[in-house]
Structure formats: C-alpha cells, structure tokens
Amino acid sequence: IMQNPEMNNKLPNILITGTPGVGKTSLCSLLESQLPEDYGINGFKYVKLAELIRSEKLYKNWNEQFDVPEFDEDMVCDYLEPMMSQEGGIILEFHSCDFFPERWFQLVVLLRCNNTQ
Questions:
Q1: Which InterPro entries has this protein been placed in (predicted)?
Q2: Where would a tag sit more exposed on the chain, N or C end, judged by fewer CB atoms within 10 A?
Q3: How far apart are CA 37 and CA 41, in angstroms?
Q4: Which domain holds residue 91?
C-alpha cells in the first residue's frame, strides 16, 4: 500500500467489497491482524458496516421479507464522515460501494468468485 501525500501522514483507508460469501470478512480479519506489524504503529480499525448499520440504526425501513435493514445512504455517510476523513487506518467491509465518496479510500478491493459450479 502506498500512502497518498494528501493524507497528512495518516494511514490509508481500505474498502473491501463484494457479494456475500466471497471472503470479505476473512480478508479483513487477516488485514487487521497483519497490517499493524507492517506499519509498526497503532494499526488499523476493522469496521463491519452491516453490523454498524444495525447497531447505530442507520436505516429508515426494515425489510420484513429478508429480516434486514434497508440502509439509508445519507445516514451511513454522515455517520462515517468524521471517521473516514480524520482518523485514517480504517478497513471498511461492505457489500456495496457505489455511494461512498471516492476521497475516503486509498485502496478499494473488489472480491469475486466463480459461482457457476
């Protein structure tokens, strides 16, 4: 990972995204445990956005059929903004990524897998 000069010596923010079951959680856990050693500082914070949406109630509607919240993009972005723009060192895991501001991330990893077998 290369650090962007505009980051003012902060750690990079990393987004791990992909459909359910591709290994996002496994990769994030591995990154969280390995990256602090590489940087030799306080390290990275792993944020499971789906859990955060539930715990912080970042949704307006609940999908009864699938028993999941229908998250509100504005509420999520408003909640994450201070963390993403000031702290740095965030590993964010979520299945969607098109609503995040590009400036938040220095690395985006899209995981895919072959589901035709």
A1: Adenyl_kinase_AK6, P-loop_NTPase
A2: C
A3: 8
A4: 18-105
